[in-house]
Amino acid sequence: AVKEYLYRITRRVGERHHSPAVIANAWEHRSDAFSSLATAIGIGGAIALGNRWIVLEPIAAIIVSLMIAKVAYDLVKPGIEELVEKSLPRETEEEILALITAEPAISDPHNLRTRRVGIGIVAQVHVRLDGSMSVAESHALTERIEERIHARFGELAHLIIHVEPTDKTLS
Q1: Angle of helix 20-49 relative to helix 2-16, nearest 10 degrees?
Q2: Cα 69 to Cα 67: distance, rounded to the nearest angstrom
Q3: CA-CA distance, 102 to 118, in Å (whole number)?
Q4: What is the 3-state secondary structure (H, E, C) of the chain?
Q5: Measured in whole angstroms, how far is the alpha carbon of residue 25 from the centre of its chain?
């Protein structure tokens, strides 16, 4: 019961601070609680039910091993996805595109590339703007988009915008 309580507190702290290491520590508390419970049931059942049920102890050990393997997989998977720079979920990419296209001067956002870096995100995108727009105007426009991205995804979000003119004679 104490280990489950520690799991809940530690997980809340990890989520609040977006810390995978603290969340992993929380899962260690929970796996301790589950393994203790399974072991107590296996050994207690074997003792209470007699020698015919001595098989309960190794069954409990197998269950605990499988549970620990699953928790390990769940904890390692996000790190591997980050190392191979897996794209963000489609819903997140659509949300990023919606924030970009909320700017009326933007047209045809394309070549969107996204990934998670630590607790932040990175997005790269190409957009088309009026070719007669000044550099200062286009810079102000892209800064407004970056502010929207930061407001939604936090200050650790990083957006790279490649601007292309809609008037091909300027390129």
Answers
A1: 160
A2: 5
A3: 27
A4: CHHHHHHHHHHHHHHHCCCHHHHHHHHHHHHHHHHHHHHHHHHHHHHHHCHHHCCHHHHHHHHHHHHHHHHHHHHHHHHHHHHCCCCCCHHHHHHHHHHHHCCCCCEEEEEEEEEEECCEEEEEEEEEECCCCCHHHHHHHHHHHHHHHHHHHCCCCEEEEEEEECCHHHC
A5: 17
Strand partners, 127: 163
Residue 19: band (very low, low, confident or very high) from pLDDT cuts 50, 70, 90: confident
Query: Which residues are CB-neighbours of 149 under 8 A, at least 6 positions away?
Result: 96, 99, 123, 157, 159
**Of the candidates 75, 73, 61, 58, which has an alpha carbon nearest to the alpha carbon of residue 23?**
75
Buried b (16+ CB within 10 A) or exposed e, 20-51: eebbbbbbbbbbebbbeebeeebeebbeeeee
Instruction: Specify the residue for token string 């088309």.
Output: 128
pLDDT in tens, 64-83: 888 888 888 887 887 777 67
- On the CB side of 1, CA atoms within 13 Å amount to 0
